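Saturday, quiet lab. Running sequence design on the structure tokens for the scaffold JK sent over.
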């Protein structure tokens, strides 16, 4: 993972915990992602809910960043971040 985590917020009050993370891209721009773990789709995975990049709202679109900068899928990228947050807060987000 090339982006650096600058801040995290763990939101345990939801059925599956949500995460808000602020990252710094290799270009020095900030990426803020609100995401959670979902079990409603056939593929259980992390999904972005809101994405901001360099102050611009990108809705829930994150694949442009993960493919171009991180060279991985959205789910892989968010899983890495969630694992780090889960360890910090000592939780098992995947139920």
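Result came back. Writing it out in full:
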């Amino acid at each position: 993972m090339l982006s650096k985590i600058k801040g995290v917020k763990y939101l345990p009050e939801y059925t599956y915990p949500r995460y808000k993370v602020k990252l710094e891209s290799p270009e020095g721009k900030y990426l803020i992602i609100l995401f959670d773990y979902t079990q409603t789709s056939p593929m259980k995975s992390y999904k972005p809910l809101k994405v901001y990049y360099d102050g611009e709202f990108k809705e829930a679109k994150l694949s442009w960043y993960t493919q171009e900068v991180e060279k991985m899928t959205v789910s892989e990228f968010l899983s890495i971040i969630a694992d780090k947050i889960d360890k910090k807060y000592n939780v098992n987000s995947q139920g």
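Notes for JK: The helical segments are 63-70, 74-89. The chain has a mean pLDDT of 90. Ask whether to fix the surface positions before the next round.
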